[in-house]
Amino acid sequence: MENVIWGLFFLASVIQFAYLLIVFGRFAFFYRNLPEEVALVDPEGVSIVVAAKNEAAHLKDLIPMLMQQQYPKFEVVLVNDRSDDESDALLRSFSLQYSNFRTVNIRYTPAHLSPKKYALTLGIKVSEHPIVLLTDADCRPVSPQWIRRMSAPIRNDGKIFALGHGSYLALPGLLNRIIQFETLLTALYYFSFGYWKSPFMGVGRNLCYRKDFFMEKKAFKALWHIEGGDDDLFVNQHATAANAAVVVHPESITISEPKTSFRDYFTQKKRHFHAGKYYRYRDKLKIGLYSLSHLVFWLAAIGIVLTAGSGEPIALVMGFVFSRATIQYFIIHEAKKKLEGKGKMVWTMFFDVMYMVYFWVLGTLGYLSKTVRWK
């Protein structure tokens, strides 16, 4: 039994160090930003599409902020999904104030369709421009150059998808620290594999693609029955090495309001994990191999420490543990600088263990769940 535990520990260690140094490390240490655009000469138009339900409090701030984008040709299409707050009156006032602002009002959603996918589909259908840029009502672009940065790979490089980073507002407390770590680790996943020409997901808080491609694929065909997945599953189905690019620049990110209760956060993540079970097999393998080796690494390490008869095995295991923790710290730190331009991630080993527990508990619940909701 002891030999089995040691074998599992070394195998898990090899996989973990391979991911950290080769997959994640390549992005964190060697990615170089694309050359800056010299000028915007008659650029293609961009339609920002936002689906919102009872989000009047957020839209009061979001819409004026979007209108400050420094891009020559864009519109904002706000899909008001069955709201019963002050959204109707607020959106009418914005329509009078801004000539490039339009509203789509939904009063009824067919029972067999996902409400958010239905809302986004209607918004994208009526949009006027060839490039669609998606975000959420509680998100804020950090720069007036957001449209320009996010649409650049599509306008300049012939890509279909541009995958951006959606961060969360930093607040005091343990929950927010967990959210910050989990969000950055998720970004590290899909940016690293995107850099390795193997894209597998994006986030709806910051996602850009061509409208005609969306219409050609008949919107969310084969995804209507799944709550969520309007972002990651759509990308997972259609993104390839040739048609997708990651956008890495501090001016390209959005910042969202994080959940402030563990109950709301767990509900949100349960929905995300529910969508994850519909990923392509090879993409589930990418995530699963890292996550399973992560679990085995820690369980085997703990098992060896608890059963070791001398100090040498403990010293060897702790050497592996702290080496991995050190490498992970620098990778996450460098990735955060690349994506957000500043900031540090501290206590990464503590949150690494927290993330492992959360992933396997919530991941299992989300995978097995049959009912999840958008709002």
CATH architecture of the largest domain: Alpha-Beta Complex
CATH level-four homologous superfamily name of the largest domain: Spore Coat Polysaccharide Biosynthesis Protein SpsA, Chain A
Overall mean confidence score, pLDDT: 90
Query: Which blocks of ≥5 consecutive residues have pLDDT under 50?
Result: none
How many beta-strand runs? 10
Largest sheet: 7 strands, mixed
In DSSP terms (H or I, runs of 4 or more residues), the helix count works out at 12
N-to-C span: 49 Å
Amount of helix: 40-55%
Trace the largest sheet across and list its strands.
3-2-1-4-8-6-9
Share of β-strand residues: 5-15%
Structural domain tally = 2
CATH fold-type name of the largest domain: Spore Coat Polysaccharide Biosynthesis Protein SpsA, Chain A
The class by helix and strand makeup works out as alpha/beta
Provide the gyration radius in Å.
22 Å
